[in-house]
Structure formats: C-alpha cells, structure tokens
Design a protein that fits this description.
Creatine Kinase, Chain A, domain 2; 12 strands
Length: 350
C-alpha cells in the first residue's frame, strides 16, 4: 500500500487546530500562450522544458516527473485527496504532468491553469517554512526556465487575480468547536473584507467536510510575499484564538457532560457502524479528533486520526484494497477499517 503524503500523516505546530499549511506559486513560460490558449504542440513544449528542469531540483532531494496520461484514474484521484494536484488537473489528463518529491510535500502541476503551479505543503502551522521552501523551488527552476515577468506588474498569470507575486498561501483549519457553538460563519465571514477568502476541504467550490476550512489570501498585486504571509498569519492567530475559546466554553462545568455525551456518541458510532459514507465518516472523525484534542478521549498515537481521515476517502480506500469497489462495498470496508483501527489504537479515558 502506498504511503500517505508526509504532511497528511504527521501533526505539526498547533496541530490540534491547524491540519496543514500550503504556499503555491503560479508561473508561466515566456513566449508560450497560457494553457487554455496554447496548442497541443505548445503544451508539449512546456512539458519538455519542465521535464528537463527537474534536474535543477536535486539540491532539495529526489523528484519524479509523471505525465498525467500515464496514470490511471484512481492514482490521479489519490493525488487530489492528498491536495498534491487540483481536481481540475485530474480531468482531461493529456498534455499535463506532475512533479513530486519523495516525501510528497512538494508538488508542481504542469499545464494546469498556468504552465506551472509550485506547491509546498507542511503539517500544522508553518507559513514561513512553507514560503521559504517554495521560493527555493522557484529559484532553482528559474535557473533553467524563463518565466513570464513584467517589471511593473510582476509575474504574468492566466487569471488576473494571481498577477503580481502569484502567491497563494493557505492554512487548513479544523474548527469543530466553532461549528458546535454556531459561530464558525461569524468568525470566518468577515475575512473577505480584509483580502482573504475561505474555502472547503478541496479548495474553491468544495464543502467543509469534517469541519475543515481553508483560509487563503486573495491579493497578489501591490504587496510583497512577506507582507502576504504576515497578513495571513495575523488572521490565522485570530481564528486559532476563537476556536480555542470555543473549546474552553464546551468544557465549562455546566456544559462538560453534554459535550462528553456528544463526543462519545460519535465515538460509539465509529466503533460499531457496519456501513458509513465518506462524508459521515469525516464528520464523526472530526468529533473524535476534538474529543482527543480536548483530553476527553485518550489514545496512543497523536497522528492516528489525521491519517485515518485520509485513509477513509474513496480513492485511498480502494488503493488499500487494491481494486475498484462499488459504493456500497466502499461504505462497508470504510466502516470496517475505522473499527479495526480504533480498536487497536484508542481507549476511553477514565
């Protein structure tokens, strides 16, 4: 069975609330139209030039270059579930590629919306670390590739909202307590006024399954990369504080028994269900992770639930079984995997 991407199987700083951090840079090759307007020959030229540039990345470890058309649909879907490629990059795989490092915490999408989408992913809250590594990758590639750049505007991109630094930094939050006290929309709803946006589990247009939300910058023109990171970090601190306050509220004496009852009921369903959908499993595992993080439910492996929230997704589950599965069989095996994992690793607190 393929190992889950390192950033998704480990817990990083502030890992009880922040699942991960990502920095993404959009880049295009000078003199070649953006992917949407490029011919097949021009898209092939981008692939050829990018494949040749992979050798420049050896200073950062081992990287592999794969064309999307050489992967089956399940392999592409696994990369989506691990946030290594976008859902749109999985579709129409001709003339597309992905470059991955051995740890699967650096990925470069080739011929997505832009010629290159450089992504660095870190567990927990590591905005500065993710940005520093992303700019290292960018600098190494620029030794071999000529990027489209304007002295006044900055990096040129297919979508005008990315022009300038072309940096999208994001923080992936787990906010079950704010959801429970019905304040998640109040806390997240105001960020758009400050040049930030909130998306669901898989980014734009996706739902916040398992109380997972992504906060990212909207502004790429008129501020530096360091200013973007600092601005996002300030709002991240505010959201962290709000979730921590909500968690303390749930544990206050007059509410603790109700909170424990809710969390143990979710735990009980996970321990005993014989069929469960991806969405229900994510919601219940979110409750269980909160119970563990609050100390209401004890277990031996701090990374277990983070890994399990990935393993129960459709493509990963089928990969574990080594074959495509119909929906009902996936639901049955998902419930079985959860029961077996919890039985081995988690015990109730006193």
């Amino acid at each position: 069975m393929r190992e889950i991407a390192s950033w998704m199987r480990r817990t990083g700083p502030m890992g009880d609330i922040v699942l991960g951090t990502r920095c993404r840079l959009a880049r295009n090759l000078a003199g070649i139209p953006f992917p949407e307007a490029a011919t097949r020959e021009q898209l092939r030229e981008v692939l050829t030039k990018t494949a040749a540039a992979v050798a420049e990345l050896e200073a950062l470890g081992t990287f592999t270059y794969r064309e999307m058309a050489t992967m089956d649909a399940l392999e592409r879907e696994i990369l989506v579930e691990e946030h290594l490629i976008s859902p749109s990059h999985m579709q129409n795989p001709a003339h597309k590629a992905v470059i991955l490092n051995a740890e699967h915490n650096i990925s470069i999408m080739v011929n997505e919306e832009d010629h290159l989408r450089i992504q660095v992913l870190k567990p927990g809250l590591q905005l500065n670390e993710a940005w520093e590594r992303a700019t290292e990758v960018d600098d190494l590639l620029e030794q071999h590739l000529d990027f489209a750049f304007d002295l006044q505007t900055g990096y040129l991109t297919a979508c005008p909202t990315n022009v300038g630094t072309a940096l999208r930094a994001s923080v992936m939050f787990h906010l079950p307590a704010l959801q429970r006290v019905k304040k998640v929309q109040e806390v997240l709803g105001a960020v758009s006024k400050f040049g930030l946006t909130v998306r669901g589990l898989y980014g734009e247009g996706s739902d916040a399954w398992g109380n997972v939300y992504q906060l990212s910058n909207q502004i790429t023109l008129g501020q530096s990369e360091d200013e973007t990171i600092e601005h996002l970090a300030r709002f991240t601190a505010q959201i962290l504080y709000s979730e921590q306050q909500a968690r303390e509220y749930l544990l206050e004496q007059e509410r603790r028994l109700t909170t424990e009852d809710w969390l143990y009921r979710s735990y009980g369903i996970l321990q005993n269900a014989r069929m469960i959908t991806s969405q229900e499993a994510m919601e219940l595992l979110s409750d269980l992770k909160l119970g563990v993080d609050l100390g209401v439910i004890e277990h031996g492996d701090p990374d277990l639930l983070k890994q399990l929230m990935v393993q129960i997704r459709s493509a990963h589950l089928q990969s574990i079984m080594g074959q495509p599965l119909p929906v009902q069989e996936r639901d049955r095996l998902r419930a079985s995997l959860i029961r077996e994992t919890l039985q081995k690793q988690i015990t109730k607190g006193e």
